[in-house]
Design goal:
The protein is of the alpha/beta class and 229 residues long. The chain is built from nine helices and eight strands.
């Protein structure tokens, strides 16, 4: 059977990772969460005091990049791969609002993007992969057979993220989350290196009024059409 590369891009909190996991499981493909990779480096920078609300020691972080090792390990209990930072599982630690507040700033750094894009392209050499992020269809896999761009209103995305954080027990307000979503949108779309844009050949899906099941059904049909083409 024909193997393809599926690139899923879009704004924060549009459910890219959920959709990508569903597709990978259904198709028997490898799933790579590139957002987790950027979050892991953000967590590293926070833990080492390189970034906080008052400052960002970008040069020191860049100098540390060769020593930062990232890899994924499949967790059969969860049904997806978790990310490891220097051999430590940080899957839970990277999903906080605190990390979300800095991840777009880390992702602006060209040296960070270069390191991670190289790793991502290596992961996808054999195809049969689903990868989600901000620049997958434009930079990482510009020749991907299927490109999907996810979007939804900022308010809808903030509510989804707020509900998710509340369920985890995080003490955050809706306004905090909405502000984070809007700020990340601005940084992601205005950075000089690989800004968030829709690839010319991407299929845009606004899921503001779609359930996860409806969204999955739409994209799975698109994937099967490409595989069987």
């Amino acid at each position: 059977m024909k193997k393809i590369t599926i690139a899923i891009d879009g704004y924060s909190s549009t459910g890219k990772s959920t959709l990508a996991k569903q597709l990978a499981k259904n198709l028997g493909y490898v799933y790579v969460d590139t957002g987790a990779m950027y979050r892991a480096i953000t967590f590293f920078a926070m833990e080492n005091g390189y970034i906080n609300n008052d400052s960002f020691d970008k040069l020191t972080l860049i100098n540390c990049l060769p020593s930062i090792k990232l890899h994924f390990e499949f967790n059969s209990d969860l049904g997806f791969a978790e990310i490891y930072l220097n051999n430590t599982n940080v899957e839970k630690e990277i999903r906080t609002l605190a990390v979300s507040n800095f991840v777009s700033k880390i992702a602006e750094v060209s040296e960070v993007r270069s390191k991670l894009v190289e790793q991502q392209q290596e992961m996808g050499k054999s195809k049969a992969i689903v990868m989600d992020g901000r620049d997958i269809g434009t930079v990482v896999f510009p020749k991907a057979e299927l490109k999907v761009f996810m979007t939804a209103s900022a308010e809808t995305r903030a509510q989804r993220r707020f509900d998710e954080l509340q369920a985890k027990g995080d003490n955050v307000s809706y306004d905090e989350v909405l502000n984070n979503v809007q700020e990340r949108d601005y940084i992601d779309t205005h950075r000089d290196d690989s800004p968030l844009v829709i690839a010319d050949d991407a299929i845009e899906i606004d899921n503001s009024d779609l359930t996860r099941e409806e969204q999955f059904a739409i994209v799975l049909e698109l994937a099967n059409e490409e595989i069987n083409n």
